[in-house]
Model the fold of this input.
Amino acid sequence: MSETVSPKKTKQEHERSTSLRQELLIPSLAVISGLIIGAIIIAVSGASVVDAYGALFKGSFGSLSEFIAGIKSFTATGDQTELLKAIYPFTESLVAATPYILAGLSVAIGFRCGLFNIGAEGQLLIGSLCAVFVGYSVKSLPAFIHLPLSLLAGAAGGAVWGMVPGYLKARFGAHEVVNTIMMNWIAFRLSDWLLSGPMKSPGFRPVTQNVLATAELPRFFAAPLRFNWGFVIALIVAYGVYWFLFKTTLGFEIRSVGANPDAAKYAGMNIIRNFVFVMALAGGLAGLAGATQVLGVDHWVGQGFSAGYGFDAIALALLGKSHPFGVVLAALLFGFLRSGATDMQSMAGIPIDIISIIQGLIIVFIAAPDIIRWIYRIRTAKKDEMVLTRGWG
Amino acid sequence: MTNTKTLITPASAKRAQILYGVVLIVLGLLIYLLFVRTTEAGVTTTFGLNLANAQAIKVPDLVVPAQATVLAMAAIAIFVGAYQLARGIPSTSTLIGVIAVTFIIAFLTWSAQDKSFSLTGMLSSSLVRATPIALAALCGVISERSAVINIGIEGIMLMAAQVAVVTATVSGNLYVGLVSAIIVGGLVAAFHAYLVIHFKVDQTISSVAINIIGTGTTSFISSRFLQKATDTLNNSGTFPIISIPVLSKIPVLGPVLFENNIIVYLMLLLVVIMNIVIFYTPWGLRTRAVGEHPKAADTLGVNVYLVRYVNVIIGGMIAGLGGAYFTIGSVGRFDEVMTSGKGFIGMAAMIFGKWNPIGAFTSSLIFGFADSLQVKLQILKVPIPSEFLLMAPYIVTMIILTGVVGRAIPPAADGKPYEK
Done:
C-alpha cells in the first residue's frame, strides 16, 4: 500500500466515529420508519392514528400527571396506592421486556456463530414447561434451592431442545432453520398434549397447576405490580453473555466460527463442537426466558404461552446487531411496544398484530440499511458487514 | 457457505453405515415387540380399494392376514439391517425407504386389524394434502435454481390464501380469487427479489421478515375485518371436484389422480412443465448456469439479475397458487396461521427432491402421506394421543433432512448475492 501511515490512521478513526454514529442512527431510523408505516396501515384500516399511538404511549409509559399526583399523595399521606398505580404501565413494560432480553440473546448468540436459531419459541415453551413442572411438583424445598432449581430446569429443557438441531447441523449438515422450525411445531404439539393430559391441573381449562410459592421469583412491589427479579436476572445474564463472547477463549472461537468457518477450521477450532454448544446455549437462554416468565409473572402455563416470542427474538437480535447490550436496548423497546399494544388493542381497537408488522418492517430496514440510507439521504460508511447466515451450508 | 462434504469423512460414512444397520434391526425388533405380539392370530386387515362416491370400476378389497403381514415386515427390516451391516447399501434413500415402508405397512396392518382401512381414500387424501407442499417446493426449486433462497414461502402462502378468499367472496367468482392469489404471490416474491438482488440483503433474513410480515398482516386483517364480517368477506366456497372422463374410471388410480379440483391438476401440470423448462429449454439452461456459476453465465451474456428476478417472481406466483389451495381449494375461509408450517415442509421436500421438480413432487407425496396418515389414524382410534400423530409430518421432515441433506447438493451459488 502506498498510503502513509498517519492519514490512514485518521481516516480509520474518522470511519470508526461515523460507523458508531451510524450504528445507533440506522436502528433508530429503522424503528421510526417502522412506526410511520405502522401508522399508515392503522390510518388505512380506518382507525385514528392519534388515538392508537396515544394509547400505545400511555400503555407503555403511563401518564406523567398521574405519576406527579401519585408522588404528591405519597408524600402527603404516605399512601402508596396512587403512586403504584401510576408506575404500573412502566413496570409492566419492563416485565414484558424480561423474556425479550433472554430470547433475543438466544438468537444473537446463534448469529455470532453463523447459526440462525428460529427455534427460540419452541425452546422457550419447553423451558417454561420444565420450569413449571419443577415449580409445582417438587415439594417441601426451601426457596433458595427450589427457585434456582426451577430456573435451571427451564434452561436445561430449552438447551436440550436447541441442542438437537445443533447436533443434526454439525453432524449431518441438516439446515438449522428448517429443523428449529420443525422443533417448534413438535414443541407446540407436545405442550398441547402435556397441558390436556399429564400436566393438566384439575378443572376444565388446559393449564398447569400454579407453581409453589417457594419457586416464585420475588416481586418488588405489592400486587397488582408484577415487576420481579426476573428483570435483574436477565440483565445479569446479558452481561454474562457479553463477557463470555468477548472476554473468553471459547467466545472468541464462537465468533471466529461465525465470521469465517473455514479459517476457524484451519486454525484448529472444532466447528462441530461449537455448533452443538452454541445451539445448546441459545436454547438454554430461550428456556430461561420461559422460566423467568412463568416463575416471575404467570406462575402457570397455558396454551399459546410462547406465541410470537421466537420471531420477536429474531427482530431483537438484528436490531441489537447481535451485541448483548444492543439486544437489551432493543428488548426494552419491544417491551414498551408490546405492553403498550395491549392497551392499544383494548382502548383503540387496533389488533396487536400490528406490532408484528412493524417488527417485520424493522427487520427489513435493519437488514437492508441501504433503504434507510436512501430514504434519509445518509452517506455510506463502509465497514465490515457481519455474516448472519450462510445458505444451506 | 461451508462445504458440508468436508464434514463427511470415510470414518463418518462407516459410522453412518453401522447406524442405519442398527436402526433397521432395532426397527424390526420394535415391530415384533410392539405390533406382532399385540396382533391376534387369525385376524385379518382389510384395505379398502374403492371410494364410496367415486366413478371408478369396483374391485375387490385387499384382505391380508394381520399377524403374518406384520411378522413379514419385521423380518424384512431385520434382514435388510443385517445386510446393511455386512455388505452396505450405497443408497441412503433406499434405506430410508425400507425403514418407512416396513414401519408404515406394519403399523397400518396393526392399527386396522379386524377393521377396514380405505387405502384408496388414504392415497387420495395424500395427494390433496401434498398439493400445497409440492407447490411450496416447486417455488423453492425455481428460485434456488437461480441461486435465490426463499424461506418466506410460508408468509407468501398466508397472504395469498387470505387475498384469494376475500377477492373470491367479494367478487363471487373463485377464479378471481385464484388469479389474485397468484398475483399477490408474485408481488411479495418481487419484494423479496428486490431486497436480495438490488439491496443484497441476507436472503434468509429477508425471507424471515416476509414470514413475520405475512403472519402479522394476515392476522391483523383477519381480526380487524374478517372476523366481524365472515359472510361478506370470508366465505367463498371451494372449487368443485372435476372428474376427468374415462380416466377417472380406472380402479384405485382413477379416484386418486383424476377426481380432484383445479389446484391439484394445476400442481401436477406445473411439475411436468417445470421439469421441461428447467432441463430442456434455453431459459432453464440459463437459470441453472446462474445458479451454479453466475460469473461465467454473465461473461457469456446472460443477464444474471433478470434471470433471478423472473425466477423468484414465478416461484412466488406458484407459492401464491399454493396459498389459494388453503382457502378456496379446501375449506373456503381464512383462519389465522392456517398454513401451519407447510411452507417450511415444502423447503424440506425441495431438498429431499434434490432441487428437481419431479423429486420435489415425490417427496411432497411422502409428507402428504404422513399428514393424511395422522388424520386416518385418529379416525381409527389408535391408542396414541392425537398430538403425537400430529407431530408425524414434522418428525418425518427432520429425519429426511438429516438422512439426505449431506448427499443433496444445492446449486453452487445458492444464497450468495451476485456483484458484477
